[in-house]
Structure formats: C-alpha cells, structure tokens
Request: fold
Amino acid sequence: MGTKDNSAYWSANKRLIFFCLAVWAFVSFGMGILFRPFLKDISIGGADLGFWMAQQGSIYVFLFIIFFYAFAMNRLDRKFGVNE
Amino acid sequence: MSQYAINMIFVLGSFGIYFGIAVWARAGSTSEFYAAGRGVHPVVNGMATAADWMSAASFISMAGLIAGLGYAASPFLMGWTGGYVLLALLLAPYLRKFGKFTVPEFIGDRFYSNTARTVAVVCLIIASLTYVLGQMTGVGVAFSRFLEVDKSIGIWIGAAIVVFYAVLGGMKGVTYTQVAQYVVLIIAYSIPAIFISLNLTGNFFPQIGLIGDVESGKSLLAELNALITELGFKSYTDPGTSQFTLVLYTLSLMIGTAGLPHVIIRFFTVPKVSDARWSAGWALLFIALLYTQASAVGAMARYNVTETIYPGGDTSSPIRFDDRPQWMKNWEVTGLLKFEDKNNDGLINYTGDKATNELDVNRDIITLANPEIANLPAWVIGLIAAGGIAAALSTAAGLLLAISSAVSHDLIKAQINPGISEKGELMWARISMVVTIVFATYIASLGLPLAAQTVALAFGLAAASIFPALMMGIFSKRINNVGAIAGMLAGISTTLLYIFLHKGWFFIASTAVVTDGPLIPHVPDTAFGAIGALINFVVAVVVSNATKEPPAEIQELVESVRVPAGAGAAVGH
Reply:
C-alpha cells in the first residue's frame, strides 16, 4: 500500500471529522447557548427550544454523530482498502 | 421487614454478584490485567465504560444540581456527554490501533522521550488520584445513610471490596464487574424516575414527562417557572450566567472527559479499531439513558419539593412545620435538610430571599430522597442504596487500574527495571493498586470536604495536559518531543495555578489569593481547563516549529496509527 493512498484516506477522514464537529458545536454551543435568544419563540414543552437542546436535544445529536461517524468510517476503510 | 434490613439485602446481594464475577474473571497475564486480553465485545465495553464514567457525582449529585440550578446546570449535561464525540472522533480508534496498554506509553513512544512519558504519568496520577478521593467519599456517604455504619468504617468496607476484585481480576475482572454495576445503577436510577414521571405528568418516560403537562393541564416547565419566580427564586430556565462562561465551562468538561485516562484505556480492550468507534457510541448510549433522565428528575424534584411546601401551588399558604412529611424528618437527622422558624409562625416559609427563607435543602439529597418524596415502596430505597454504591465503586476501580498500570508499566517496567518478568510486572501492578487505595481511603476517611474541588481539578488537569498531547500526537507529524513536553507542562501549571489562586494552595481555603469573583472576568476556576488546553496547544506548536522535526520513524508511526489495517499485528508486545 502506497503512501499516496493513505493521504487520500486521511484527508477524507479529516473532512468527515470536520463536518461532524461542526454539527457537534452547532447543537451544543450554538443552539444550546449562543443562539438561544434567537430561538426563544420556538417552544417545546413549556420552555424554549434552546433550553431543550441544552438539556436533552444535544445529547441525542451527539449519539447520532458518533454512530454516523463509525458507519461512515467503516465504508471509507473499505473504499480505500485499509479495513482490518 | 425494616428498611435497614431491606437496604442490607440489596447492598450485600450486589456485593455477592461482584465477588462472584471477580473469582470467575481472574487475570493471569499482563494483557488480561491491562486490557482484558483485548477480547471485549464493543457493546459490553460500552456498558463497562458507562459504569466506569458515571461516578457518585453523576448518580448522587447531578439531578440535585440540575434541580437547584435549572438551565445553568446544562454544562454538566452537554459537557459530560459531548466529550464522547471528541473521544470517538479524535482519540479512541487511533490509540486502539497503536495497540499498547497505557496512555503515557503512547505519549512516550510518539514523542520519543521518557521525560514526556513521565510527565504524562504524573498528570495521570494527579488527575486520577484526586478523582478516587471523591469516589471514596461518596461510598462513605452512601454507607452512613443507608447502612447506618460510621462514615469512615463505610469507606474502608468499600475499599476492601474494590481491592478484592480489582487486584484479582485487573481489567478483565473490572470490565465484567462494571457491566453488572451498570445494570444495578441504571435500574436503581430509572425506577424512581419513571414512578415520579407517571405520578406528576402521566408519562412513562421521564424524558417525555419533562416536556409534558402536570395535572392542571399546563406544562411542567411553565408551571414550575411560574411557581418558583412567585416565591422569589430565579426562573428555572434562566441562563443565570454569561454565555461566555457557559461555553467555556461546557468546553472544559468536554475536553476533560475525552482526556481522562481511565476512560481512554477502556477502548484498548476491544478487538478492532472499528470496534473502538462503535464502542464509544454504545458507551454514550448507556450514559445518555441516565443523563436524559437526570434533567427530567431535576425539574420534577424541584416541582415536587416546592409543591410539598405549598400544596396546590398556593404560594400564600405554606404547610405547618408540624405537618411536614416523613421524608423531611428522615433527612433532618443527617443535617442535610434544615428548618429554622425565623418569624416564629410555625409555617415553613420557603422563598428565594435568603433573609426570610426558612428551609435549606442540600442538593446532594435529591436523588437519594426521591423515592421517599414520591412515597415509593421500601425496596426502591434499598435499590437506590445499591445503585449509589455501584456508581462509586465502578469508577474507583477504573481509576485504580489507570493508576496502577501507569506505575507498573510506565515507571517500573519502562524506566526502573526493564528486565522485569511478566509475573513481576503483574505483582507490581497489584501492589501499586493496594498502596493507592489505602492512601486514598485514608485521606478520604479524614473527612476532608474534597469532592467538588477535586473533581474540577481532575477535569482541568486532563483537559490541559493529556488531551492536547494525544490529539497533536495523532493529527500532527510536526509536534516533537520538546514541544509536547513544554506544552503539557505549560498547560498543567497554568491550570493548577489558576485553581490554587481561587481555591487556596493545595485546597487549603485560607490561603486563597482571589476571593472576590474570578481573576479573569467570566472565567471561574472550574472552567479554566479549556484555556489550559489552548495554552498547551499554542506552546507545543510554537516550540516544535522552533526546534528539530521528529525523526522519520516517528513520522511513520503516526502514519500507521492513522489507518486501521494491521491492528492485530500491533498488539504483540
């Protein structure tokens, strides 16, 4: 296996990580804290959406991100022939 | 049967299970002792990681903290779960590919330096040891409340049990004991939460109950906000602090979570790199089962306590002190719930104004008192006792493993006596484990009020030292030995300094220099970890770029940890 294959694999991995971390930051620091004032008109169960994201929603998205990453990386591993 | 006898049956019954597992899963080799022979199924490892991670703080303190702080407690919820995203994406798969036994071992090899390895060992020991102290204190509290033994005796009983199964079984024994402990603690947490949600909102799932309606037909959160603001408390959904502080605090807890060695080493136990990725997801799933309930339990407990004092939500007529429910009487004995009739009217005036408020409820009792508040049967209280002890013991065992493997593997085998036999190394691992627990238990039995401060220190240290070194070791080929060492030292020392300035040198409160608000505006000492991590990153990059590039074989090592293929071969030791 040449070095060139690995660098393409690594770049693809880094792009995926960047995308996942952008979602990670958006739901927690974004919707849960910084953008909360802008979401105050959207109500969920008697409180604003920002409150729900900070106490419930972000955790569900984190879970989704990790399983999505594991699934996407398995495909990437096979595509580049670096799977175990 | 008395409540005491029921508690005894549940606690001793759970100990019986842990003993059985310990005997069944004895460790015979260093690979079994350090990494459970690398044969742990990812779902099993996820469950063990969840028990490893969720400590006495998560089980006993968190719901009470949320009940008291409301929205302002969100950094704990997001921070302690969001850290798993960093762990799964940035560390776990690559460290599993590296295929060795300890965190300092990776740092030593990647930065081709025994000094780097020793610095990592020191960070690991300080962070983990302070964390163990908090766990042993938690064990003491649970024992003294439920089994009515003296707190310091309770701590020693807990220590004896951990030593028995951790020393005998190592990682293998601890893994399977933690699985059992997870089952005990999640059942113990969920049953009262489900009952309370059903009583209050009619929803089976507390997560739905949180956004559900109470009897009056109005939503729980709106009703709670109306009730407590009328009493002069801050609104439950109010931010309470600046957005900057919330972001920094959340980020510090996330980075700290991903950098705590006792969690990282759990991912060395799975067979493959792809298993490490999946396993992080399973771990977070099992953790989320408790954490998403905690935010619901917090809001419901706050509502229940307020409603108990002001029946029907009528804020003009609190109940008479003589008519208070049994659970309040039970907790008065412990001193964690206090009533002082300031205006001598015989009523419990529970308000947000410190001058007229007459009821003081310690936040730590919320989870433990929940079954009593909701009038649940006696066996649920016994279950809560077993659950609290399981949460503390499982985390203590994981921390002991991280410490003992660093001592026997990274200090004794790597630096003091490289020719040591596998049997000798195993013996040293067990000896250092016993020494650590005896030391930690002794300190904890002195009754020092350490829990909260030391947990903050553990997270701050892990965030400022270990996480950046690991991440740069994987994602950069340019960071060299001097850069990594300088970065770790700069990160830890600034974080330690900042904490000590506020909390006093070595936590002796009277020596605190800064007492009126944080030194840097909006940066409390508990949230400094993220800044410590940033300092670590910057120093490491600057110093590395000013000094020599790492040798070719190190750059090859970095290349090899980045691809999953060949993980099996790297296991050979």
